[in-house]
Write a structure and sequence with these properties.
With 219 residues, this protein is α/β, with parallel strands linked by helices. The protein has six helices and five strands. The longest helix has 13 residues.
Amino acid sequence: MPAPGAWTFSVTLSVLCAALCSSGAGESQTAPEEPWLKQRLEQFQDLKFGFLMHWGAYSQWGCIESWPLVEEDKWARPDDLPAWTERGKDLKRFQADYWALPKTFNPVKFDPRPWAKLAKTAGMKYLVFTAKHHDGFCMFDTRLTDYRVTAPDVPFHTNARSNVVLEVFNAFRRQHFVIGVKQSLAWRTDAAGTTTIEVPPWAQQTPPCRHAFVVKLQL
């Protein structure tokens, strides 16, 4: 077991290109009624090139976010993923250890300022950062759940940059980026009583959002 802070943290980065279509399915979509929303969407489309980032406690394993927890999503647990094979491909064991990953999350070298500068040099205009994925772990400070990066049982909570979302947004704002946030619903039992995945109660108590994901842009 590596010493705290000795983990190699991977950052999953994806580049977004806003493709504008003037025909096909796009024509059948209802235009927004609110003038301010239409203006915001037009401004966003004009930005063209942006930066989407997933990063969280799961990065300690070098796996993707949330999806390895789903039994049917075997593609998310490849045989070359050490965290999967070292647990004998036991899904229950894998899930239990995944939920506990925040207790070893301590990215002491975290500094989003070089990310922002590099993105600006590449010509990017906007950022979308995942504040919470389906696993429910919040990369921001909140009083609504203990399953957060600033919780007392997360080693990184004592770091001056522990409020990750705030630090990322501030770094990109200084480079004049438009700021967006993606927040996914934590998996839980739906209104029909169907549970998509077994989620510990403490991971269910996360800040809610109305949609499967939310992208909010501050222009």
